[in-house]
Amino acid sequence: MSYVTPAEFSAQMVDAGAKKALMSTKDTLIRAYMAGAILALAAAFAVTISVQTGHFIIGALLFPVGFCTLYLLGYDLLTGVFTLVPLAVFDKRPGVDAKAMWRNWGLVFVGNFAGAMTTAIFITITLTMGFTQEPNAIGQALMNIGHNRTVGYADAGAGGMLTLFVRAVMCNWMVSTGVVAAMVSTSTSGKIMAMWMPILIFFYMGFEHSIVNMFLFPIGILLGADFTWGDYLLYNEIPTVVGNLVGGLTFVGAMLYSTYYKTSPSREPKSVAAE
To answer: Which residue in 39, 61, 237, 247 could disulfide with 169, CB within 3.0 to 4.6 Å?
Structure first.
C-alpha cells in the first residue's frame, strides 16, 4: 500500500530536518532560489486566472500546482524548514544544533527572496511590455494586493498587526500540513492530492505566506504601487515570517513530533494489551 502511517512519516520528518540542516551552502541556496521562483510564478498564475475569470476560487484551486512542483523537485521553502529543521534539533541529531538551524533558515530566506524577486522582475517586464506601458488589469490587481496588505494593516493599527500575525500563523499551519501530508503516500499522485488540500485552504482564505509575499509586494512596488519597501518589510514581511515560524513549528511540527515520534505509553490495562 502507498499509505504511510503518522508514526512512520513522523520519523521521516526528523530525518528530513537533519538532512536540510546539514546540506551544503551551495545546494541550500540553489534549492531555495528555485523554490521561491516557482512559488512566485504560481502566485502570478493564480492572480492572472482570478482577474481573467473574475472568480478567485478558480485561481485558488490552481495555485497549488506551484507548491506541488517545487516539492516534487526537492526544493525548499522557508515555511517548510521552519517546521522540519527544529525537530532534528529537538532529537539531538549529530551536527544539528541551534547554529545549524539558524544557518539553514538564513540561507533559505536569502534563496527564496532572490528567486521570488527574479520572478517579480520577469513578470513586471511581461505586464508592462518591458517597462514601456502602464500595468494592465493583472498588474493593477497586484498593485492593489500589495497596498491593501501593507498600508491596510498599518491603518488598522494594533488590530491590523494582530490580524496579520494570526493570518501568518494559520498560513503555515496549512502550508506545513501540506509538506507533511506529502509524506503520507509513496506515490506521486498520492503526494499531490495530499498537498493540494491544505494549500488550497491557505490561498483561498487569504492567509499570509512569507515567500508568496516576497513576490506580491516587490512586484507591486516595481509596478508603481503606493507603498514603500519600508511598508512592505515592517507591515508585512517581518511579522509574516515570525507568524509562519510559530504556525509551522507549533501546530504541525511540535504536535506530530510529540504525539507520534515521542508517543506516550498507552493507558490500556496490560491484560487487554496482551490480548
So the answer is: 247
Give pLDDT, residue 1: 61
Evaluate if pTM is beyond 0.85: yes
Neighbouring C-alpha atoms within 13 Å toward the C-beta of 62: 15
Kindly report, residue by residue over 121-158, the tens digit of the pLDDT. Answer: 999 999 999 999 999 999 999 999 999 999 999 999 99
Residue 274 lies in a domain: no
Instruction: Give me the chain's average pLDDT, please.
Output: 96
Using alpha carbons only, give the angle 246, 62, 55 rounded to the nearest 5 degrees: 100
User: Tens of pLDDT along 210-264?
Assistant: 999 999 999 999 999 999 999 999 999 999 999 999 999 999 999 999 999 999 9
pLDDT at position 107 is 98
> How far is residue 216's CA from residue 50's CA, in Å, rounded to a whole number?
15
> At CA 174, angle to CA 227 and CA 225, rounded to 5?
10
In a domain, residue 269? The reply is: no
Q: How many domains does the chain have?
A: 1
Can you tell me the distance from the alpha carbon of 69 to that of 65, in angstroms, rounded to the nearest whole number?
A: 6
Phi and psi based region of residue 192 (left: phi greater than 0; alpha: psi -120 to 50; beta: remaining): alpha
Residue 36 structural domain: 6-128+135-262
The answer to whether residue 162 sits within a structural domain is yes
From the list 87, 75, 70, 62, the residue with the least C-alpha distance to 10 is: 87
Does residue 235 belong to any structural domain of this protein? Answer: yes
Rounded to 5 degrees, what angle do the CA atoms 205, 211, 216 make? 70
CATH code, domain carrying 238 = 1.20.1080.10
